[in-house]
Structure formats: structure tokens, C-alpha cells
Design goal:
The structure is a homodimer of 387-residue chains. Chain A has 387 residues and is α/β, with parallel strands linked by helices. Chain A is built from 14 helices and twelve strands. Chain A has a ten-stranded mixed β-sheet with strand order 3-2-4-7-1-8-12-11-9-10, with helices on both faces. Chain A has a two-stranded antiparallel ribbon with strand order 5-6. In chain A, a hairpin with a 2-residue loop joins strand 5 (198-200) and strand 6 (203-204). The radius of gyration of chain A is 19 Å and the shape is globular. The two termini of chain A are 19 Å apart. Chains A and B meet through helix 2, helix 3, strand 3, helix 4 and strand 8 of A and helix 2, helix 3, strand 3, helix 4 and strand 8 of B.
Chain lengths: 387, 387
């Protein structure tokens, strides 16, 4: 396989975009990434786009062709990829394979979701399609409910506390406050999180990522020609994906995501690295408990010690490992299909040393972790400076 | 890139499956393909699945993980790919790239759609999401309406007649009558088609493919090890995909599908073949006019001569080129995401010489042509005997 690099990235602001539609956002993000890559549109040979539920959210399927059309890229092939909340990372992975295989040279990969045009109960029902529709959603289980059960079990097994959960939100808002693309650019306190409204015990509203509109895009090229386009290409040194039972009741454990463990193991083997080599990680914190499980299942902390590590500040910007320097899903917001690509944008800015007020010092190697649904899909990418 | 072969295929009967759900069908097709490939489940390293609108049709997204779970394939990665009615071929193409790149060895690719659980008006609305939701569907244009405009223009420019359109349906039903997996296994006459109810002038009900449930699957492996599994591996010698404007009003011509022309040109270049080398083709006949445009845009007949060629019987099983030996979308039915994979199944059976009563004599090289929406995506694969 050929070595592959990121040569350009771009994203919209994440938030509630009342005056921009699905196609406007993806075009904005794509144009920014193409400009950042210093390429002409005609150099792009193929594209991928991740979006979870455009059919139900905006009545539009066939997103690949729509994107080719609206970005003026016809007749190149563009393909939509879907894996619930991991749609972005899955699209990125297909783009990586398209370049690695030699099928295409310059490939653009986007992620997008337009979620705020429907009311919250409808969106909650649609997001339920990321779990088991017949055995979970149909019986009333929403995503906050599913993650609440995981949180309860984690608390029972390991003594994880509400304060530990809340510390994730506080840290991510602190980082997000420095990110101009984040939906929430305000800091919050532990007390505010703990006093916020209960959604699904023990998860309070500030333990949950919000509903968000947004898009993000990246441009990929073979590493050996990447410096023709970019002074700071970022190499993709690992790409791994794994699956687990779609319904919680089928899993061996509720307090870990097995797909994350499998994908992480494969990614570290591909990269020939260990967790100690990682300077920063964007992990899938759809709920605060999800970040705690992620940093355990990825191997940064032993199972059961993620909560304490968070509360002790070990995942802060300047600590052992910087987790969710972007602000994560919690502060950036979570436009489902865009999140996995936004993680790649953030790591790219960090590894370039261009992350403004939230720069991780000496960031050389970063990891992105994107989860679909309640953990039935997990995708791990490892990136490093490629110049 | 490594050379890639098909080592197993399988499909459900296409039709109205009142007693089988989405996940039952895809599991049945997958199990058949795995059995046909003579492999054990644990040899499969990854999967892809094409489905257009599972979110709206059955409330379920995250189909990759669902399939991994229900087929007992966890924790391997399975990824959903969507490109409207071309979802199957796009999934097949990603599977091809995953093997060609060296990322994975044995890969399963499925296609599935469960369409008959909703009423026809809802399904028609959902299928409209394959076109331009904001500029076509929203204003009342359904797919029969869009293809009717293309048919009208083709008649105006080239003198194509209702009899020529009808001849496509008659030929495809004749082939489908010999296919035990087809939704309609009855022959029809030209007169029956011409006297059938008008849907969108000039397209009558027998000019239209039906709404259908079904699934199909294939197993891929590197060609150099394919004969370890199969006595008759089928090599994929070309894989090409192209895009066109999503809305009809943006296109330069209504009487051709530019994406088909671009993809066909690339596919023939990859395969180092011409149209004369092709023994049989499965083409995308969602409406009779679509098959006429397809055989022109693929290059088998000059623009404007496809209708006469059909009426003159040149696309029959034993004629110049056998088109839609399976019965096509018209007689097999069109479970959207499954159609592109079903085309590959049919070509595989034909190239193996195992197509029972509908066998094309001396079939050595076949072409599959799958279209998304009204032509905004086109995918062309060329297969040949690999033993």
C-alpha cells in the first residue's frame, strides 16, 4: 500500500445554522479544505462523504452525487459512507484506502450533518437508528438512556463518580472556549455540570453532547507527492475499524467498548507505536462516560481508572495526554457525520502547530477515535507529522 | 493494485417478503455467498453493504454493524455505502479496493433493501431522495416523471417509439421467467405492455421496475489465492464510477446519461477491451427507456439506435449481446441497494456456465452497469473468467 498524507483541512463553524442548508455547509467545508491544500479542483480524482441520516433529516440520499454537483467536481466519483456517528471516520478510511491502493491520487473526504431543522424528539428518534431499532429504539431506549446504563455499570464496577464524569465536560469546554469553530465557546464549572438538569440518571444535560449542524473536509494525497502541495503534510500511519454487537444486551460487558479495544490494538500494531507515543487524542465523547471509557479502552489508562485520571487533570491540554483539544463532541457539538472529519482537522492543526490558543506543546503524533452508535462501530486513526 | 476475484455469490428471491425482515434477508444472502465460496466465517476480514434508504424504510441506520452482528462476523469492520440505486455497485467497488489495496484479503459485500413495509406513496417519496430533494422532489417530480421526461426527449430526438420501449420489458420478462430469484417469472407480450396503465406519459406500468424486497451478496479474494476457494473464480478487470448533475434541469442533455459514458470509457480502458469483447451485460433498466439509453451510452449501439436494436431483438439472450439475462430490474424487481450486487451474482453464474435455462452461450466476459437516481451516479464493472 502507498503511504498517504493529509494535505488540506477545513470546516464550518459547528452550531445551529438557520440560514445554511446541508449542501451549503458541505460546500463551504470542502472549499476551505481545497484552498488549504493549495490544489485546483480539477486535480481531485475522487471523493467520499460521511453522513448518518440525511434521508430522514433533510429528505436527501445520494449525497455523493449531490456533493460532486454542488462542489463543481463532476464527473469524478464521490461516494457516501454511513456508520452512524462514525460515518466521518469511515469516509476518511475509504479515502485513505482509495489513495493507498493506487486507485486515486488526490481525494477529498467530507463529513456533514444538518440536524436542527427538526424538533428534538424527531432527531432523538432518528439517532436511535444508530442502535438496534427493533430491540432498543422500538422499546423506548434513546441514546442518553443507553449511555446512562453504561455509566451506571461503570460506577458500580469501578467507583466512578458524578464528579469524574463532570470533569470531562469542564475540561472539554475549557478547550472548546479557544476553538472558533466550536458550538459552545464558554467555560463551565464542575458545580454547573453537577447542578444541571438530569437527562438519564446519572447523565445530566452537561454530560451530553448537543444536536448540531456542521461540516468538515480534508484532502488526501500520496505522501511522496504531498510536499508538492503542503509544507506540512500529515501522514496517516494507521487506520483500523472494528465492530461489536449493535444492541447493548448482547454484549459481554457494559463498561467497555470492545470495538474500540480491537481497533486500537490494530492501529497501534500498524503504526508500531504504543500509547506512550501519543501526544494528543480526539476521542468520541458523545457523553462524558464515553470519554472515560474511550481513554481506558484505547489503553491510555487501565480499565476503571479513566474517571480518576480525568478528575485529576491528566487529560488536560498540558498534561500526560491532551484529550479533545478541540473541545470534543461536548463543546464543539456533534453534527454526526462531520464529527469524525472534524477530529482529523483538529489533529492536523495541532500537528502543524497552528492550533492557536489551544496548542498542545510539541505535538508530533495524534490519535482520532470515532464511535458509531453505542459502540457497535469504532474507528481509530493515528496521524504524525509527515515533513 | 492486486488483482481481485469473486469467489462466491448468493441472493434471496426478490419479491414481497412479508415474513422476512431487513436483517433476515441480508443474513440469508450473505450465508449463501459464504457457502458458495467454500470459506469459513472466520476467514472473512471485512465487509461492505449497500443500502439506499434503510433509515426511512425500516428506521435503521448503522447497517454495517448490524450486518456484522447478525452474520456473526464481529469484530470485523463492515461499512455501509450509499449511492441511491447504485448503492450495491458502490459497495462492491469499495470491497474491490479494500482487496486491491492489500488492506484486506477476504471481503464480503452485500446489498439489501426492504421496501414493501410502507405504502407506495411513502416509498415514492423516499425514492425521490435519490434525485434533487430541493429542486425536483419538493416540486412534485417523482422518478417515473423524471424518466418520462428523458423518454419524451429521446423520442423527439431519435424517433424512439412506445413499441421500442415495450420491447425491453418483453425481453426482460422472457429472461426473468427462467430466473428462480426473479420477482416476476412470467412472460409478457408487446401488446400487454402497450395496453398497460399509463404512469407518466410515455411510460406505462410495464415500462417500470417494481418495488421489491431482497438482498444479494458476494465474496471477494485476491485472484492469486482465489482458486484455493473456488474452481471458477471470476476476475474483476475494471471498476469505474462517475458523477453527473443530480437534477435533470442542470444537464446538457436529457437523452443520455453522461456519468454512464464517462464510467464506461474508463472501464473499457482499464480492461483494455472494447464493447465487441462483451458477451453479456446487466444494465440498469429501472424504466425501459433507461435500458435503451444504457446500451447507447455504454457504447453497444450508437446514440438513438438503442430502441431499434431492442425491437429488432439484438439484445436477446442469443443475439449480438445478451442484455439483462437475469430479467433486469424490470422482471427481477428492484430492491434498490441489492440490485447492483444481484447484477454481479448473475454475471458470475453466467460466466461459470451455471445460469440454467437462461445461459448465454460461451459467456466469457460480462459487464455490469448500475445507476444512482436519474443518472447522477453510474458505476461500471467488467468481469471475466478467472480460471
Amino acid at each position: 500500500m502507498r503511504r498517504v498524507a493529509i494535505i488540506g483541512v477545513g470546516q464550518t463553524k459547528f452550531g445551529e445554522h438557520w440560514s445554511e442548508g446541508f449542501r451549503d455547509m458541505v460546500t463551504e467545508a470542502g472549499a476551505k479544505a481545497i484552498e488549504d491544500a493549495n490544489i485546483h479542483g480539477e486535480e481531485i480524482q475522487a471523493g467520499y462523504v460521511g453522513t448518518m441520516a440525511s434521508g430522514r433529516l433533510v429528505g436527501q440520499e445520494h449525497i455523493g452525487a449531490l456533493l460532486a454537483d454542488y462542489m463543481g467536481l463532476n464527473p469524478i466519483p464521490i461516494t457516501r459512507v454511513e456508520g452512524a456517528c462514525a460515518s466521518g471516520a469511515l469516509a476518511f478510511r475509504q479515502g485513505f484506502m482509495a489513495v493507498a491502493s493506487g486507485m486515486h491520487d488526490v481525494v477529498v473526504v467530507g463529513g456533514v450533518e444538518k440536524m436542527t431543522d427538526l424538533d428534538v424528539s424527531e432527531v432523538s428518534d432518528i439517532l436511535g437508528g444508530a442502535g438496534d431499532q427493533e430491540w432498543e429504539l422500538f422499546l423506548g431506549a434513546t441514546f442518553p438512556g443507553l449511555y446512562a446504563m453504561m455509566a451506571r455499570r461503570h460506577m458500580y464496577e469501578y467507583g466512578t463518580t458524578p464528579e469524574m464524569l463532570a470533569s470531562v465536560a469542564v475540561k472539554n469546554h475549557k478547550n472548546g472556549a479557544k476553538n472558533k469553530y466550536a458550538q459552545y465557546q464558554n467555560e463551565i464549572t464542575l458545580e454547573q455540570v453537577l447542578k444541571s438538569k438530569m437527562i438519564a440518571d446519572p447523565l445530566k444535560v452537561f454530560d451530553c453532547s448537543p444536536i448540531t449542524d456542521g461540516a468538515a473536509a480534508v484532502v488526501l494525497a500520496p505522501l511522496d507527492v504531498a510536499n508538492k502541495y503542503s509544507e506540512q503534510p500529515i501522514e496517516i500511519i494507521a487506520s483500523a475499524q472494528a465492530s461489536d454487537n449493535i444492541a447493548l444486551h448482547s454484549r459481554a460487558s457494559l463498561s467497555e467498548l470492545r470495538a474500540t479495544k480491537v481497533a486500537a490494538k490494530q492501529a497501534f500494531e500498524q503504526a508500531k507505536l504504543t500509547t506512550k507515543d501519543i501526544d494528543l487524542a480526539e476521542v468520541h465523547d458523545c457523553f462524558t462516560i464515553a470519554e472515560i471509557m474511550a481513554i481506558e479502552d484505547l489503553g491510555f489508562y487501565k480499565k476503571g481508572e479513566g474517571g480518576k485520571a480525568s478528575l485529576d487533570g491528566k487529560t488536560a491540554l498540558d498534561a500526560e495526554i491532551a484529550v479533545n483539544t478541540s473541545g470534543g463532541l461536548k463543546a464543539c457539538g456533534h453534527p454526526v457525520g462531520a464529527t469524525g472529519i472534524k477530529q482529523i482537522c483538529e489533529l492536523t492543526w495541532q500537528l502543524r502547530g497552528k492550533a492557536d490558543g489551544r496548542q498542545r506543546k510539541d505535538a508530533e503524533i495524534g490519535l482520532a477515535h470515532n464511535v458509531g452508535g453505542s459502540g457497535a462501530t469504532a474507528v481509530v486513526h493515528i496521524l504524525k507529522q509527515g515533513w
